[in-house]
Design a protein that fits this description.
Elements (H helix, E strand, L loop, with lengths): L1 E6 L2 H6 L3 E5 L5 E2 H9 L9 E4 L2 E3 L4 E2 L4 E5 L6
Parallel strand pairs: 1-7
Antiparallel strand pairs: 1-2, 3-6, 4-5, 4-7
């Protein structure tokens, strides 16, 4: 299955790209499994927010073929 992954703000710098398509072999995959199995060998940076198909979720959210997963740092304001 193919997953679209987007990175925003400092996550873009951390990953070295803004977007990528990932081909995964599992039919049942969580956001955490995607990060550790396909995107990075390191831990997800602290306080990173995640969205699947434009809806905030936690790392246990299940990803399906064709989904869009976005990673970005928390937004702060003053």
């Amino acid at each position: 299955m193919q997953i679209s992954v987007k990175y925003f703000a400092s996550m873009r710098e951390h990953m070295g790209c803004a977007e990528q398509k990932i081909e995964v072999s599992e039919s049942l995959l969580t956001v955490e499994g995607l990060w550790h199995g396909y995107l990075s060998e390191g831990a997800l940076p602290a306080n990173t927010l995640v969205a699947v198909n434009m809806e905030y979720c936690d790392l246990s959210a299940v990803i399906k073929s064709g989904d869009e997963v976005a990673f970005f740092p928390p937004v702060t304001g003053g």
